[in-house]
Amino acid sequence: MATGARPKVFCSWGFPEAGLAILREHADVQVWDGPDGAPRDVLLDALRNGAAGVLALPPTDRLNVEAMDLAPDLKVISGFGVGFDYVDVPEATRRGIAVCNTPGTLTETTADQAWALMLGAARHVPEGDRYVRSGEWRKYEPALLLGTDIHGATLGVVGMGAIGTAVARRARGFGMRILYAGRSRRPEAEAETGAVHVPLDDLLRQSDFVSLNCALTAETRGLIGTRELELMKPTAILVNTARGGVVKQAELAAALRAGTIASAAIDVFEVEPVAHDDALVACKNAVFAPHLGSATFATRARMSRVACENIVAALEGRRPPFLVNPAVWQD
Ligand code: GLV
């Protein structure tokens, strides 16, 4: 880079201007402005052509060895979101590339979405909406679209991190008993929500609603499959706002078809977008959303700001506020 030249930053999507405006003050910013996110070859070209920073969309963009091999000047990968399963983090660390994310920006919003889906599935909100619009509704019927009570039921939270805790906090307002499973005890979350730590199998057996809120890691990939679904109550509802890969999707579809569990409320899929003829999408006893966990105006603007501040800090030689791989940073 010539002395005084501004670093190049590539943004794989037209992210909210709240963040891009910050970036533009410090860098030559190339924003992909096509209708969808940048195709892979465009991302790779930008890396090849000297991008020092990339603002990427998890979980879609794949910042793997192939991408890093092409990126001689890359110093920082900043994800528009919390999950970093889209980056080969050990490889980035080995090459001294900072990987950043936006924890704290979307915790409450994603917990709201888990609840929206849980309520939607429990009380047949999408089916009711379709029924009214169809013109089939003739009269108030005592047995129409009967659902499941949430108040007083048992909620099982898998992964009591920030989002899991926010989901559990809301459950207190519904008078729910709260169980949680995860590698370690979370005394603060227990004190705040009254949640009780139990082994995963016990949580699955006892819960009326199971909310997945863990990160996708080698340990959690495929965590919920046929065996786990068979432990659940036949009346139970599974809610996934974490990552599709935490659930074995074909096995969930089979369990829904067989009535092993009553319903599922799914925001995330193994492959996104999910194929419209996927066996899971064919299940009537499920409610879907197209990965909308953090999708509010305010939260998306916040995510953009934090993701861009991470890039600016890294490019200026300051420790980024939210660094996934602190090993790359020697103060
Ligand atoms: C969105 O999925 C995120 O990882 O923040």
Give a description of the structure.
The protein is α/β, with parallel strands linked by helices. It has two domains: 8-105 and 297-328, 3-Layer(aba) Sandwich (Rossmann fold), CATH 3.40.50.720; 107-288, 3-Layer(aba) Sandwich (Rossmann fold). The protein has twelve helices and twelve strands. The strands form two sheets. Strands 8-7-6-9-10-11-12 form a seven-stranded parallel sheet, with helices on both faces. It has a five-stranded parallel sheet with strand order 2-1-3-4-5, sandwiched between helices. Helix 10 (226-231) links the parallel strand 9 (209-212) and strand 10 (237-240). It is globular. The two termini are 23 Å apart. The relative contact order is 0.15. Bound molecules: glyoxylic acid. The site of glyoxylic acid has 7 residues, from loops.
